[in-house]
Design a protein that fits this description.
208 residues; little secondary structure; Pectate Lyase C-like; two-stranded parallel sheet; 2 helices; 2% strand; Pentapeptide repeat-containing protein; repeat
Amino acid sequence: MLDRHERARLSLIINGGKRLPLIRRDIMFSSGATELLERYATGVRDFSRANLRAIVLKQANLRGINLQDADLGDANLLNADLMEADLSSANLSHASLQKADLTQANLESATLHKADMREAKLHGTRLCGADLREVNLSNADLRDADLKGATLSGADLLHASFYRANLGGADLRGADLFQVHLKDAYFDDKTQFDPGFDPIALKMQRSG
């Protein structure tokens, strides 16, 4: 743990000599979050396999962080910056990721069961094989995302955008596809829809 003087010195370094706080004091972080943010500020990026269950990191800047195989179940990552982060195989079940920026992040094989991802930015994000059962992705941006083999059964996708997203082999049975933007999203013979659903009618593109 950095002491008060080390924090002040580090704050000056990373903020170009301006006396800005290292950690935003108007946000309450849970136990362990302060240490993680301080280590991140010193340049540490590898927090793989860390136990971060129920951690509160609202609005935190965690761009490029490595959280591979980490346990973030029930974590609060509201409006967090996770651009290009590695969250592959991480547990994010029941986590709050509302309005989080996950652009170009790697969530391959991650568990996001019942996560709150409303209005999340997932442009170009890798979600291959991810467990997205009963996730709330309403109003989320999934343009160009790769969801090959992902499970989205029971997901709320209201007004979500899947423009040019790869849904090959994805399981969408039981997902709420009402008013979902699926134009030019890709599907294949292994993509699973509810009986009677017509992807061509919604201008989806068959691949393979």
